[in-house]
Amino acid sequence: MSKPGQxxxxxxGDWLVAVLLRRLEVRRQLSARLNSGRPGWDDDEAAVAAxxxxxxxxxxxxxxxxxxxxxxxxxxxxxxxxxxxxxGLMRLEALLRSAxxxxxxxxxxxxxxVRVPAHVLATGGAFxxxxxxxxxxxxxxxxxxxxxxxxxxxxxLAGR
Length: 160
Hints:
Order of helices and strands: HHHHHHH
Helix content: 55-70%
Radius of gyration: 15 Å
Distance between the termini: 23 Å
Structural class: mainly alpha
Largest sheet: none
Low-confidence stretches: none
Number of helices: 7
C-alpha cells in the first residue's frame, strides 16, 4: 500500500493521474514523453496502465463478483466512450476479466494500442463509480507502479 500523499514516480503514472483527473494540458505535455517520444506504447508503461486497471477492477468488483456485472460494466464503458476500442465489447470484457485475475481469459492477441486505452477507460470508469477523489487516485496509481516494479518492469521515471 502506498503512503498517503505520495506522487507517482513514472512518466506513465503522472500521465495516468492527468488523464484520470481530466487535466488536459498536463496530459498533453506528458504524452510527448511517453514511449521516449515515439508513437505507440512501451511495454513497461502499458504495464502501469494494466496494473492500475487490476487494482481498480478489484476495488470495484471485489472477489465474489458476478461475471454479468463485468459484462454490464464493459457495455456501459463502451457506450459512454463512444469508441470501438479496437475490438469492441468482447475484447474490453476480456481485458476486464483478465484484470480481475481470471486465468481462462486469453488477451495475448490484443495489441497494446487497444489494451492501454481500454485499461485507462476501465480504470477511470471504476474510479468514477467508486467516487474516488484525487488522493485515492494518486495512491492507486502509486500502487500500480509498485506492482510493475515488483514484477520486474522498468517504466521510465518522471525525473522531476
